[in-house]
Amino acid sequence: MRAEELWKAYCEKENIDIDTPYKAWGFGDAPDQLADLVLTGIKTATASAYDLYFMEGEEDPLPQSGDYSIILNSKDEAVCVIQTTKTTVVPFDEVSKEHAYKEGEGDRSLAYWRDVHEDFFAEEFAETELEFNGQTSILCEEFKVVYRAIDVN
């Protein structure tokens, strides 16, 4: 199912204006695995590099509470609609163990989260003129699943 089709079905079900903005995206290098974690309720948070939202040519606004996103798998098929419930910006070194747990990856520990995300963010920053370090601002986003593609009749 395409993102537009899932969005239309969700809007009709919830009586939401079809023109309400949403983003469609997949999770990094493991979109299928992470989308499955979202669907099972294990993954209820994500993190992104705050400074990269302000790069020249970047058109993505910062996620805010109440925003909608459609999660895509590796085939760009819509898996579910999520709604952002909370955002905070903290230095990388201050991302909490609670946030790491909510991301649902690996053993859900802060050590695992830091190890995986340090590599991920270092790779993202390598493509820019910005430097990644422990004080780099990270946007921590919490969300809830509001509609799943498998629920579409």
UniProtKB/TrEMBL annotation:
Alphabetized Gene3D superfamilies for the sequence: Sulfate adenylyltransferase (3.10.400.10)
Source organism superkingdom: Bacteria
Domain spans labelled ASCH: 25-147
InterPro entries from the UniProt entry: ASCH_domain, DUF984, PUA-like_sf
Protein name: ASCH domain-containing protein
Originating species: Agathobacter rectalis (strain ATCC 33656 / DSM 3377 / JCM 17463 / KCTC 5835 / VPI 0990)
Lineage, highest ranks first: Bacteria, Bacillati, Bacillota, Clostridia, Lachnospirales
